Task: structure prediction
Amino acid sequence: MQAQNNEWPVFRGKNNLSGITDFEIISFPVLLWNSATGGRTKSSPVLSEGLLYFGNENGMLSAVDLTGKTKWKFDAGSAIEAPPMVLGDKVITGTSEGVLHSVYKKTGKPAWSYPTDNQIVGSANYWSAGTKSGIVFGSYDFYLHCLNPVTGKLLWKLETENYLNGTPAVDENKIVFGGCDGIIRIADPSTGKETSQVPIGVYIASSPSLSSGKAYFGDYDGNLYCLDLNEKKVAWTVPATETSGSIIAIPSAGFNSVVIGNDDKYLYCYNMSTGELKWKFRTNGQITGSSVISTSKVLFGSMDGYIYLLNLTDGKKIWSFNAGGPIGSSPVVTKDRFYFLTEDGRILAFGQKK
Result:
């Protein structure tokens, strides 16, 4: 369920949204190719069986091979902000019209579609428990929806008190998600019943990252939280300062580090156990995309148009690259490559310098 093996089929790589790669991020990246995709995009790419998938503001879901060649496009009819998800032989993505589309990943031919009553801006995720499985996603219709992956039929839906903006995180038979009602909710995937909720009190624009029984997430005021999922209470908080911006990104959580970007243009690294600041790194733009971390490195993009590679230990810059356009996406990372989307609609592939 969490294996990568050069696959990156869900947003953030794994369905706990931890932003961890099983591989060491390459040390001396070089640009291999740069391919225009035909439209502006806020999406992030995913990768399965040698094809990259992503959406754009023109409503096109695209499949691009690892040389940058477009294999197919599917017209979803309205803007696709969310990253797609690959599950089995299908690619699943939501639209600004509130429709979740499922298409066959090899051909782009439609499999099924499911309408909600408002826009979908977060990625879908999936869960499996024994013989049961489901696709879960939030909508601005105030519901978390769960569908049968094969048929697209509704299994259950869970009502909240406001928009659901982010991607639900899944781990250890729990679905954990927040929303504009300022509440973190924990639900049972099989039944859709809410097992607990933790009031935060501030609009949660993004998603939690799950690691070792904890959920890490930020809010719109710039506070960062570590929530103990067993105790159902906040273990530590990094309060926002007067200069903090909103936290739109998802923390990367692992290797005793929580790495998160902020609208104040800084990337921060905190001790996972205590919330103590380890280091911070300033860019020249807001950081709305989420980083990926390996045992020794941090990889992320900024709205200043640069991609950065830092040391995880001390935050020192190893490498940077001017991508020529703002980056609000999260990367795909494999054993010997990584991929980014720029907001002006180009996909960039990087490999190891020979």
Notes: The two ends are 33 Å apart (CA to CA). The longest strand covers residues 29-36. The mean pLDDT is 95. The chain is about 0% helix and 45% strand.
